[in-house]
Model the fold of this input.
Amino acid sequence: MADQTSTGLIDPALADAAEGPELLAAELRLQRPRRTPRHQHARGQLLGAHSGLLRIEIGDLHWLLPAGHIAWIPPALPHALASTAAFDGWSLYFSASACSRLPAVPRIVQPGALLQAAVLRALQWPHLALDAAQTRLAGVIADEINASPPLPLALAQPRDRRLRRIAAALARAPHDNRSLEDWAAANGLSSRSLARIWQAETQMTPNQWRQRLRVLLALPRLLAGEPVTRVALSMGYDTPSAFIALFKREMGITPARYGKGDGGD
Done:
């Protein structure tokens, strides 16, 4: 079934109204993949998925937003969104004045119980001016976003067309363990040139980039309950221990705890 293209979770005119109600809520459920072309709006956007997986493009960065996590996109920041399968998601749009209390740069966080409960309450509100209690709850949401440490769920994409081909191939087959020399030879580069360009364009070595990619691709599978060993082997690791060590280094917790929805200490 073909992807569904959408302009957003909310009427673009409302999303681009900097003033008006401090917070506007919207939800969207689709049975097939969804793509939103690159766009921007005057309001800041807090978004997440009840189920499914979102890819967010911001400049040369690709962010992966698994269900159960929340992304913050400041106002006037161009971005594109895509889900890879059925989509059940939501957004909260904050007015320009409310955004002054929120981070100036995008981030992805794993929400605690208070933030989750506050978002669920806000999603029930009509598009009207907030009363005193709602205004206080909107402030709690902003405080919780500020207090939540950002997760390393962004991956810079190389701009060089040869490196982009390699990046796309690795995304399709993260278990591919070909060496740097093999990738370079297959794309008309020396291994030294490949490493130099990759570092300059992504601020990561090729190996660091591939490790981060594997962690990102593992997240939705772990949350879906797949065994750690199966995920590790499918990512090209001979034993689970190397994957577990990498995952803990990147995410701060073990993959088993992450899969149980445990945000760590």
Summary: Confidence is low (pLDDT under 50) at residues 1-8. The chain is about 40% helix and 20% strand. The first helix runs from residue 12 to 15. The first strand starts at residue 4 and ends at 5.
